[in-house]
Amino acid sequence: MRTGIMQNYNTAALDLHRRQRGKWEIRSKVLVRDIEDLSVAYTPGVAAVCSKIAEEPKQAYDLTMKGNSVAVLSDGTAVLGLGNIGPEGALPVMEGKAILFKRFARIDGVPIVVNTSSPDELIAVAKAIAPTFGGINLEDISAPNCFYVEEQLQDIGIPVFHDDQHGTAIVVTAALINAAKVTGKNISDMSVVINGAGAAGTAIGKMLVGKGSESLSSFSPVKHVIICDRKGIISEGREGLNSEKEKLLQFSNTANMKGDLRAALKDADVFIGVSQGNILGADDIKLMSDSPIILALANPIPEIMPDIARAAGAAVVGTGRSDFPNQVNNVLAFPGIFRGALDACAPRITNKMKYAASMALARCIPEPTADLILPNPFDEEVAPLIARAVKKAAQ
Fold first, then answer.
1. Measured in Å, how far apart are the chain's first and last C-alpha atoms?
2. What is the pLDDT of residues 324-383, one digit of tens each?
3. Which residues contact residue 331 at a Cβ distance below 8 angstroms, ignoring those fewer than 6 apart?
4. Are 109 and 101 in contact (CB under 8 A)?
5. Active site includes 354?
């Protein structure tokens, strides 16, 4: 993105947030105009509602905010591309996520940032606030803590979903399904290179190889996935691998390739970048197979600019940016996923629900082209379509 445009966005954003004092507010659904209104909305009438829920806790979904609310919870340890900037620094992002829930799925998102660096404390907070909400969207939590936190919250009675992991994986999978149609290649036969072994890269890899998709006949898992980090290909016996990266070898790099990113790209069909900008050039694309697919998702600068990738032979190029074709954006997934989960009163978001969301998103573009593999984020049909698919999978 050109520096001048970035500066304009920065200035406009600061002006907006200062003028509005943030982006999120609370509004009442009911009027309190007189004693009668007060007696029904609050005491004494509210006691009957409390008693009903005490007798049947599930009634909270129909009688309170619980059935249409999601907590957007973060510790501020991995915010956008800014890193560990703390809870106050993370709050504008959580506010933004909350208003996207409202805009695209009519869900009341509530931003919550927590001043802790302990994953166990974050887990305790999530469990403590769970009675208030119908779901929890974990956001901007650093790896490997994000894996542990989400795993420990899967049996608290409401869906807990780390969007940086699964939202990204769902949208990328949909993008690859449609990009494969454009190139005429069979997705299961593709060789895929993922650069970035954090939350997003890990979840993308798991989803593409079909972990948890055993009950689906409509998804063909990718057989060949290689994951790279800053040191190159994650391979058996490589020094310095932490436990999370060792787990990646359970489903990736079955041939135990070694070397750097360029070695991984040799004859590969797909590059998926969730890493950093400007790390690829035209010569790297030329190492790949004919008509490769490039999803360069680093923001604001992608791993390679679309014009360079196309000139080097890429058949389909997607980025995380809205000013280029094929924007791969989590907003295409998470509103509909939570809408469907809330409508089903689901206790968790299962792998089946994630794949259902991805397949539904792909179907939004029945005839994909090189410049159109995913719908526009403002397509009003996307969230309802995903919600229906997720609700059906939940039931």
1. 44
2. 999 999 999 999 999 999 999 999 999 999 999 999 999 999 999 999 999 999 999 999
3. 100, 104, 377
4. yes
5. no
Is residue 97 annotated as part of the catalytic site, yes or no? yes
Which of these is catalytic: 66, 97, 185, 391? 97
Domain presence at residue 240: yes
Q: Give the residue from 276, 285, 383 showing the smallest Cα distance to 329.
A: 383
Query: Is residue 4 very low, low, confident or very high in pLDDT (cuts 50, 70, 90)?
Result: low
301 and 172 in a single domain? The answer is: yes
**Domain end position, chosen among 158, 178, 210:** 158
Reply yes or no on whether the pLDDT at 6 is more than 80: no
Cβ neighbours of 260 (radius 10 Å): 11
Encoded tokens for 74: 């973060």
**Element spanning 62, H or E:** helix 60-63
Number of domains the chain contains: 2
pTM for the whole structure: 0.92
Domain co-membership, 37 together with 178? no
Catalytic residue among 42, 58, 102, 286: 42
Based on the domain organization, do 305 and 238 belong to the same domain? yes
CA 160 from chain center: how many Å?
A: 12
Dihedral sign (CA 362, 368, 370, 372): negative
The single-letter code of the amino acid at 147 is: F
Domain limit, last residue, from 137, 158, 179? 158
- One domain, residues 97 and 169: no
Domain that holds residue 102: 20-158
Per-residue model confidence as pLDDT tens digits over 255-269: 999 999 999 999 999
